[in-house]
Every structure is written in structure tokens, then in C-alpha cells.
Write a structure and sequence with these properties.
heterodimer; A: 648 residues; alpha/beta; five-stranded parallel sheet; five-stranded antiparallel sheet; 18 helices; 21 strands; 37% helix; B: 259 residues; five-stranded mixed sheet; 12% strand
Chain lengths: 648, 259
Amino acid sequence: MAKELISKIPEGPLAEKWTEHKAHMRVVNPGNKRKLDIIVVGTGLGGASAAASLGELGYNVKIFCISDSPRRAHSIAAQGGINAAKNYQNDNDSVYRLFYETIKGGDYRAREANVYRLAQVSNNIIDQCVAQGVPFAREYGGLLANRSFGGATVSRTFYARGQTGQQLLLGAYAALNRQIAEGTVKSYPRHEMLDVVLINGEAKGIIARNLVTGEIERFGAHAVVIATGGYGNTYFLSTNAMNSNGSAAWQCYKKGACFANPCYAQIHPTCIPVHGDQQCKLTLMSESLRNDGRIWVPKKLEDVAKLRKKEILPSDIAEEDRDYYLERRYPAFGNLVPRDVASRAAKERCDAGFGVNETGLAVFLDFKTAIDRIGEDKVRERYGNLFQMYEKITGTNPYKQPMMIYPAIHYTMGGIWVDYNLMTTVPGLYAIGEANFSDHGANRLGASALMQGLADGYFVLPATIGDYLASHFKDPKTDTNAPEFVEAEKAVVEKINKLLSIKGKRSVDSIHKELGHIMWEYVGMARSAEGLKEGIEKIKALRAEFWQNVYVAGDNFEFNQELEKALRLADFLEIGELMARDALNRNESCGGHFRVESQTEDGETKRDDENYMYVAAWEYQGEDVEPLLHKEPLIYENIKIATRNYKD
Amino acid sequence: MDFKLKIWRQKNAKAKGHFETYEVHDIEEDASFLEMLDILNEQLIREGIDPVAVDKGCQNSGPVSFDHDCREGICGACSLYIDGRAHGPDDEVTTCQLFMRKFKDGATITVEPWRSKGFPVIKDLVVNRGAYDKILQAGGYISVRTGGVPDANSIPVPKPAADESMDAAACIGCGACAATCKNGSAMLFVAARVSSLALLPQGRVEAARRAKAMVAKMDELGFGACTNTRACEMECPKHITVNHIARLNREFLSAKFKD
């Protein structure tokens, strides 16, 4: 049965769509809300803010997370900031400008109406967070401070030192704690969702594994919200937390939710370079550093050779022998070009042999100009914790010598397809935050992930889910003894037993690392038809190897991290293939997706609006059957489509 | 670099634990402590796979379980007691940000879980820190609903107050303070939250109620009393100072006087 994509974008002028839509949505009366159960999976910015807001409204909420506390979700690691169209700087910012720059930054591959709504509610988010006691940076007058981020022409990013994600998450987590104390939300830490349960085609619950005891448990509800983040760890090495995974989203896909634009993965330009083959995690250095840091490599190859042999220090290289290549190529935006542009430019210089460390895969991020201009103290105040982190990891003092950075996988713009109400193609199943595909197009701008997670959780979902539940408030409590639950649980148990019984020769991590190499090589920063086809074959072969030769230590009924990893890897091995398939289908370059066949003479991305101005939503058709591609055309009525230009 | 590792192994909460000793070789000095444990685990898994090793009686308890996630020092998941110090021999870092260059080649390193009444062991080096969530649920928030709040700039906050609030808000809830305290007190954790909110005008309204509720919950959950040894401050990976404990005491006492 083929799904139909109905985006449900409201009629009317862009600026009035959301207000009008809200005005006409149905609501559930307070007495009936108490009878309705909602499951939220994931406790990052999206999940925590959604669960707290839904609890406040009076619904019965159950919230699940894989870590020992909701506060550890990976939103906590976001450093730089959160965008909002407050125009506190009087630099002529507006909802329209934030909307426009987000669409442009996403290379014209995001839905207009969603992005406009995001820009509209951005201001409410800042108000909300301040009221919760988030200690945003302030000016001496006591009012909020801002900084600039890549792809933006104004200063609209609010921040809390280099720990903005942490502070926003602690705000949402505090709101969640308040609801847990009041009894409207029940929290299930160390629980991992392993399947979503559908009854008569509607999402009615989940199957979860208690990670401490290994027990498989059933949970019923009237609606299920997926807020489990992205699938960047398909690449093994990424800036994602070690336990971040795509499994919850993937189970939704396998139960009929379409998966949109899987090939859109963001490669962040400012990460600490890989140091050896024992590494399992890459560390991000916030994009905010590009406000004051200048990116360069030497102009002369002989200087590169000396640097690699450690015969000279970066500071020994004269100003005129440095190539500030972003400032050279993109004079209008300079070091603050969007992430995809900065990443490709670094790769271009390193491919040309100018990489500055032993592996040849690093460029400099230099603060000398800023230190000379505003002084070391000011720089310390702005980025102190980031500089300290850099020094701890690398053993180099970035106040004295420039940082070394290189691009790494950071965020996935693709995700579960949702309509304007954030509902997937499965009724009653919602996806919010990074887990959905909706707002960032082919490239996310810095400081927009936090904005989207909180917009969805605080302001969008609590309104839209009511419209769905208004026609379900008479439904009885979901019976977790229904055959659909029994069957789903059985399938989960069989999968676990199969994994434990293989007793092969390879560890889970060794296979995951191999998958990561395939992904980086064939589905990484530069993709070609030939390479993608080869990649798909390699992933399939590795998946077969996994199911025949993996060794999962330990048992089911215990705390077993190897089993957790194996279950997640089983899904990454399928997600990777869909990413490659989507990348192969999209024979154009846009945002983070770069097809070598589609570039301009000077190596910039070349979009093909005539053939690819659509959302690619894939529908599962069964194991080892090619998925079905649906196309949701993208219609731009309010902005003029242009070539993304950061040069002038 | 080569190391000998003495690691606490405990099958589950009820089982009796013991130390096992392992050797790891050729570790890069730029490797993090947790990467070193990853390598050990890969080695233990390989030994488990290898039938020859098993035949020779090379029995091991399988890979070592330990909590970890972001590996950049912010999520607060990692929680190892290394050579008698919470988060190991470096200052102001979490375990994941501890690097092997901080150890001497050939050293024997002892690795234990957090030891505190408030944090029972789940397995090996993994403990249950649910008590910290419960303390925050008792009052570690400002009671505002979503929506219906004033414009963000309508509440000016003096920069020094905002900065100090941020200093306290940097707490990652890792548990090092309680694990390192001889009394097993969670005072620094509680103080960080109370202080962070009490410094802001938005948080003042409930400051007294918050301090009382959180301290009462901490006591109820079996954490010990604070005797100002300042060990917590020494081991806090986020450099949260005992000044915040002073502020908590002030809030707590003034609340009690008003009762």
C-alpha cells in the first residue's frame, strides 16, 4: 500500500498560516486530557520540552531515555547558541529575515511554511527560556547579548558561554522535573525503544528494553512522539554522543513512516582532527569561534612540509605567506560562510596538499588577530571553556598557537517525514527535533538546531497533537495485551536472541568502524554515482557479514552495553544503505549533499531546481526490497529562488 | 604506552564485587582514558571469541561496563574513580577528558565506580544516580508554564549576577562531589542549582521554598551532611566553588527563620 504525502500546509498568506491554523485546530477539553496517554521517546530539547508542555496541559505523559538521566541527552553538548528574530541589536533583523536566511542556508530544499513558523516562534523560545532561569549572556545594562553565526547577516544568536545547549536543556529538564514531581509525566530512564506498535494503522505504543534488567516491556498510549535525534553515528566517527542512534526512527520507518532526505548529512567544519585509529569520537569546536577566528593554511607547500615535520610553528609563518582561503573565496561572508561551504573549502585545500598536520587533514583556526584587537581577556570571556577543552584534548595552548580543525559529521537534516503538524505518515505518530526532516533543507545553519528542537517541543507539537487527539478522547486505554503488542514483542525478542546466538568472530565496534569508513569514503563530503553504487554493495556485504559473524558478548537479561550497540548497529547498517540510495537518486549538489557530477567551474555546488526541487520521502517495502520513492514538491511562493551566493 | 589496570568487576547490584587485573599495550599518549578502556574491551571480547584462549583457561568476565556518552565533558555520564580520585589525576576534567599522557608509562591504574550510599552499583563501574534527578524534582526549577511569559528583555539581570548564575549552572550532575565527599554529601550539587536560580530575579520568588525542599530531599535519600572539607570543590570537573554552598546555607537558614 503506497502512502500519500499530504503536507497539510495551511492556506493563506505565509505570515498568517500558523496563527490561522492554530485558531481553527480542535482542542481537547481539560477533563478529557487526563484520559489521554502520550508516549515521548527521547529527552533532548525536543522531547523534554514536549513532555513538559504536554504534562502542563494535563495529558498523561510517559517519557523514555536510554541514559541514566533525561539531562544527558546530546542536546546538552550544543555549544554556540540559539537563533531568534528579536532584533535586540537594531540591525534590522525580522521574522522574515530569519526565515529567508534559513531557507537560503538550506539551499532551497526546506518547506517555506515550516521555516516561517520556526522563525515566528523563535522569539517565544527566548522569552520562555529566560523565564525558566536560563543564564544567557548579558550586556552590562542587564539586557541580553547576541553574537553572529555562519550564514547570517545579522547578530541574532543568544548564548550561554560555550554551553548554550546545556543551559537550554537544563531549562527544559527543569520544566520536565516539575511535571514529574506533579505526577503528569512519568520518566523511564535507561529504557530503549525497540519498536513502535500500530493498531489499525495508528500508533498506539512502544516496545522498550529495560537496559538495567534486560526485560522487554510494553507501553500503550493514544499517540507516540519520536524525539530521538539524528543518525550521524552511521559514520562511526562523528560529533554525536557515543550512544546517539537512529534506531527508534528506523523502527518507525519499518512500520510505515516515510523517511525523508536521508542523504542530507551536515559535515561541521570546525572539529578537532582525528588523531589515530583508536579514536571513537570526534569533538566539535563551536562555530561561534569563527566569529573571531580566521581560517588559513600556508600558501607555500614547503611551509606545509616544515609544519608537518614540526620544524616550524604556525606562528613562524609570515602574514603574506598565509592563505586565508575563506576570506579569499567568499569576501562577503569570509570566515562566516555556512558550514557546508566551509567544510568543502577545507577539504579542497587539504586535497591540494596544504593540510597542516601529519595526516594532511587539518587547517588552522587562528585567534591572533582577535587577541591583538580585543585582548586575550575578552577572548577568554567569550570562548574560555572551548579553549580549555581544546588544550585538554590536544595539549596545545590556542592562545599562543592556532587551533587545528577539520570537518566531521555533525548533524542529519534528513529524518522522518512529517506534515505541517509534525505527524508522520502513520496516524498518531509524531516526530520532532532532529528526528524529523522538516526545517533545515539540505544544510542547517548554526544555532538553528536548538531553535527547532524547542520550537517543536514547546510551541508546535502541544498545539497540533491536540487536533489529532480531539478525535481520540473517547478511545479506551490502549490494551498492551492486544495481539499487535504480543507480536511486536515477539519480533524484538527473536532479534535479540538471534544476535546473541551468532557468536561469530567480529566485535560490534569493528564492524561499526568498517561501516564508518565505507560511509565517509562513498557517502561523505564528495559523492559520485559510481562511488555510491559501490558503497551500496559494500554496505550490503557488510550487513550480511554482521548477521553471520558478529560476536555479542553477555546475555539478554542483564545490563549489556554490547547488546545495545549491536541492536543499534543492525539499524545503522540499513540506514547507511538508504542514505546512499537517496544520494544516488539526487543527481544534483545542494547544501551538505555534494555530487561531483554537479558542480560549477570553481567547485561550488550546482543545484538542479528543475528536476530535484522536491523532498525525497522513502517508503519501506520489506527486507531487501527496494524502497519506494515519493516526491513532495517544494513550492516557493514568497521568496525568489536564487543561487546561494556568499561571495558578494 | 603500557598499563596494568586493576578494575572493579561486579555482575549486578546484588552480586559481590572484586578487582580483576588486565594489561593493555601500545596505547597512544593522545588517547583518552575511555578510549583506552574501549581498547581493553575490544581485547576482552577478542579473548572471549578465541576458543584457544578459552581452552587455556583464559576466562574473563567479558567487557567492562562503564557509563559514557558525549565524550566531550558535558553530559556528565562518565563517572570513574581512578587511582583514588573522582575523574582521575587531572584537574577540572571529566573522565572522558582525561588523557593517557597524564599517566606514567608502565603504571598500574586502579579503576572503581563512584562509591557513595546515594549511588548504588548497577554493574561493574556503572552506578545509579537517579537520586540526583529526584533532588531536582523536589524543587530545582522555576515554576513557569510554557507560554504566557514576559518579553525576555523585560527582566534585566545585572551582568555579574548572570555570570555567577552561569558559573553555578555549569554543573553537569556527574556525582563526583558526593562520590568524593567523606560524608557522601551532595551539598555542592544541590547548592549549584539553588544558587544558580537564587541569583536571578526570576528565581528569587521561590528561592526559600526551593532550598528547603531540595535539602530535605537530599537528606531523605541518604546523602550525608556537609562538614566543609571542600573536597567536592577540588574534584568538581566544572570548577563549581563552595561559595555556592555558602549561598545555599544562607537561603536555607533565612527560610527556616521565617518558618
